[in-house]
Design brief:
The protein is mainly beta and 227 residues long. It has helices at 6-24, 213-226, and strands at 45-50, 53-58, 61-65, 68-73, 84-87, 93-101, 109-114, 123-124, 127-132, 141-145, 149-159, 163-167, 179-184, 188-200, 206-212. It folds into two domains: 6-125 and 214-226, Beta Barrel (Thrombin, subunit H); 127-213, Trypsin-like serine proteases (Thrombin, subunit H), CATH 2.40.10. It has two helices and 15 strands.
């Protein structure tokens, strides 16, 4: 797990709390004139750049609170220490505030990125992101990744400590960290998770795998307030 200064931790703790509360009520809106291509936004390509090279992932979620902008992605995307993040579409650079990654791939896998005061566009595929909700078994579930695009399927069940498995969702390297989502209301979107990749069961069946976003936001707050 990594973290920045005590002051930044205090700020991000408040930010994560605000995002969780406001989005659960559907009240956190994008900046009025933010355009997804010129702002930090769910579904964007991100590059994690270290002295040893660079890797590509997808951003699951973005929000702003108290004048600071944050993004959430998979922890394994930033597990190599000493790097920084670039939102490829908007060009903004970010720093990793904290991350958690269980190398057994059955537990925690999420990261919080600080993008300074970059603008946020709370939208995905042209629809407003209006909520963070728990996964629901009775509705279609979708995933958007920078490599495979968007695919939809069904929730299969829980896996490991807190992860979920899916069927019918595509997975290609670079998709990791992207938003897992469902429809919210008539035209909007609720993000339910952070895409982690594939899981092959003992019988050879391949599933998609994600970590619930509401759990990640809760644990990121616990991490920042404890340090």
């Amino acid at each position: 797990m990594t973290a920045i200064s005590h002051r930044a931790r205090a700020i991000t703790a408040a930010a994560v709390t605000a995002a969780a509360v406001l989005l659960s009520c559907g009240l956190l809106a994008p900046h009025a004139h933010a355009v997804a291509e010129r702002a930090i936004s769910p579904g964007h390509t991100i590059r994690y750049i270290t002295p040893g090279g660079a890797s590509t992932c997808t951003l699951a979620f973005a929000f702003t609170a108290r004048g600071h902008t944050y993004g959430v992605t998979a922890g394994h995307c930033v597990a190599d220490a000493g790097g920084y993040v670039v939102d490829v579409i908007s060009g903004y650079r970010g720093s990793v505030v904290s991350f958690d990654y269980d190398p057994t791939r059955r537990g925690n896998d999420f990261a919080l990125i600080h993008f300074g005061q970059a603008p946020v566009a709370a939208s995905l595929l042209g629809a407003a992101v209006d909520a963070v909700t728990a996964p629901a078994a009775d509705r279609p579930i979708c995933h958007t990744g920078v490599s495979s695009g968007t695919s939809c399927g069904q929730l299969s069940g829980q896996y490991g400590v807190a992860q979920y498995l899916t069927t019918g969702l595509n997975d290609v390297p670079g998709d990791s960290g992207g938003p897992v989502w469902t429809r919210y209301g008539i035209d909007d979107i609720a993000i339910v998770g952070i895409w982690l990749g594939s899981h092959i069961d003992h019988d050879g069946t391949t599933y998609g795998r994600f970590y619930p976003l509401d759990h990640a936001l809760t644990q990121l707050r616990a991490d920042t307030t404890a340090r």
